[in-house]
Amino acid sequence: MSIIDLIAQINNEIMRESHVKGFMERQVKKLAPGSLVIRRRGNDTYYFSFVYVDGRRKAIALDPDSRYHRQIIRELTERKTITHGLPILRGNIEALRRCMSELKPYNPLNYKYGDLLNKAYYLEDDVCVRDWRKKPDSQNDYFRKGLIHKTKIGKMVRSKSEVLIADSLYDAKLEFKSEAALRLANRTVYPDFEILHPKTHKLIWWEHLGLVGDQEYVCENIEKIIEYGRTGIVPGKNLIITYETQEKPLTHEVINQRLKEFDLI
Predict the structure, then answer these.
(1) Are the beta carbons of 227 and 191 closer than 8 angstroms?
(2) Quick one: which of 86, 84, 48, 80 has its CA closest to 64?
(3) What are phi and psi of 233, to 5 degrees?
(4) Is-contact 224 191, C-beta < 8 A?
(5) Residue 49: φ, ψ to 5°
(6) Could you read off the pLDDT of 87-145 as tens digits, one per residue?
């Protein structure tokens, strides 16, 4: 887990505990006053409500057979739970906020010349930018004559939809490669795009399925996506999948939505 992911998780936990704390603070104002004390003698159980009257502590016996007293017992039990839990929640929230304020994402690229550093300066599973930039594009030798569409920066891709994706990545100032080799468990594949996440230094892959009306094509790609998953490349996590049909082509809106979902823009 990266520091950025950890900060997001801590922030979610602060929101979760703050929500419960707020509910408890509102709820305690509605409950019966006093504190519940339970005494057991042999097989008998006795319930008392301790309240302060004129500055003096007073015990009031509660009869669990009485509907009114049962409600008081329930409310005092709830009050006792809240009294126990609120200090814990408040302490947790304060500690998490302190932690949030002290955590800083480590990024060797924050140094002016950080892109010249080697892998040793990166955290485990981070991509060394210098090495990644040396990785060649278009390593797929299959049907190279099919690379007939040119993007804004001169990359050759196989379809107009891939031009849309590539140009959107370029406009978002993202570094990416097209059809770069990727070794899965049992074979080498060539994802349409391989993107360097600018914040996490992790890689995100993009597969565009342009022939979803072709059953054989769909089955082949489902098998490939399953194999991606065995390698730890999972849709929604580090694999973007888009698709189109003749009736519903890929649009800029869909592309930008995917980029936002993966925190790339």
Answers:
(1) no
(2) 48
(3) -105, 110
(4) no
(5) -110, 125
(6) 999 999 999 999 999 998 888 888 888 888 888 998 888 899 999 999 988 878 877 88
- For residues 220 and 233, is the Cβ–Cβ distance under 8 A? no
Structural contact between residues 151 and 195, judged by C-beta atoms closer than 8 angstroms: no
Helix or strand holding residue 129 (H, E): helix 129-134
Burial zone of 120 (CB within 10 Å; 0-12 exposed, 13-18 middle, 19+ buried): exposed
User: Where would I find the beta strands (DSSP E) of the chain?
Assistant: 35-41, 44-53, 56-62, 149-150, 156-157, 175-178, 182-183, 188-189, 193-196, 203-209, 239-243
- Local structure of 102: helix, strand or coil: helix
Residues composing the chain:
265
Query: DSSP label at 236?
Result: T
Question: 156-157 and 193-196: which strand pairing?
Answer: unpaired
Decide if 129 contacts 115 (C-beta within 8 A): yes
CA 45 from chain centre, in angstroms, equals: 49
pLDDT digit string, tens, across residues 143-194: 788 888 999 999 889 899 999 999 999 999 999 999 999 998 888 999 999 9
Distances (CA, A) of 117 to 107, 110, 122, 126, 130: 11, 11, 9, 13, 7
CA-to-CA distance for 14 and 11, rounded, in angstroms? 5
The pair of three-digit structure tokens given for residue 92, joined into one six-digit string: 């947790």
Q: Are 79 and 28 in contact (CB under 8 A)?
A: yes
Give SS3 for 179.
coil
